[in-house]
Amino acid sequence: MNEVKDTQATSSQKMLFTMGGIGIFCALLIVLTYEGTLPRVLRLKAEALEKAILNVVPGTKQTVAYSLVDGNLVQGDQESELIYAGYDDAGRLVGIAIQGEGQGYADKIKVLYGYSPEKQTVIGFQVLETKETPGLGDKIAKDENFLNNFQALDVSLNSDQSGLANEVVTVKFGNKKNPWEVDGITGATISSRAVGSIIDESASRWAPIIQGQLEQLQNQASNE
């Protein structure tokens, strides 16, 4: 009887050791695969972001990243919040690409939009990440009428330059009357409202910072 118990115990131990070894091997394989593919993933994400910047800031030939450090815009990636200044061939500032995100219907929506400091308008828009309902909420990334909202969306500052003069709001499709309103998408009310809120919150924060340090941004390309 004892021999049977010993045999069973030994068999169980071998099984545990085997399963543990397989688990360790699988974990190691996952880590190695992640480490091996990470550079490519980062490169592809960087390339996609670069294309998005060119899309939302038309006329851009050169981009310069700025980090927000203690309220000041500092050139380069300082592992902080980033914006991307776009310059034309002559080194003239044509716009700023700004990222924003907020809660949609299904999950977070991440966007990139172009901001013209000269016109104080949003001049381009692209959805970076969305998990909104296919055929409905995901129209925020491809509906032509909706995307047209962001060719000249008013985000001008108030008199003391502390925030927007008018809140960016999404209205029912066909009811847009003011340049700071976003014409929504029928059947995707929550998603299109979420985009309006994202732009409003982001522009309210970034536009005063950019306008307050505009001279630095305008002179950057000529200093390189």
Describe this structure in words.
- This protein has one domain.
- 29% of the residues are buried.
- The strands form two sheets. It has a seven-stranded antiparallel beta sheet with strand order 2-1-3-4-5-6-7, with helices on both faces. A two-stranded parallel sheet has the order 8-9.
- Helix content is 40%, strand content 25%.
- It has 224 residues and is α+β, with helices and mostly antiparallel strands.
- A hairpin with a 5-residue loop joins strand 3 and strand 4 (93-103).
Our Rg estimate from Cα atoms comes to 25 Å
Q: Describe the strand arrangement of the main beta sheet, using strand numbers.
A: 2-1-3-4-5-6-7
User: Assembly state here?
Assistant: single chain
Report the span from N to C terminus.
Answer: 85 Å
Low-pLDDT ranges: none
Question: What proportion strand?
Answer: 15-25%
Structural class: alpha+beta
The number of domains is 1
> What share of the residues lie within helices?
25-40%
Mean pLDDT: 87
SSE string: HEEEEEEHEEEHH
Task: Write the topology of this structure.
Blueprint: H1 2-56, E1 62-69, E2 72-75, E3 82-87, E4 93-103, E5 108-116, E6 121-129, H2 144-147, E7 153-154, E8 169-171, E9 181-183, H3 189-212, H4 214-219
Parallel strand pairs: 8-9
Antiparallel strand pairs: 1-2, 1-3, 3-4, 4-5, 5-6, 6-7
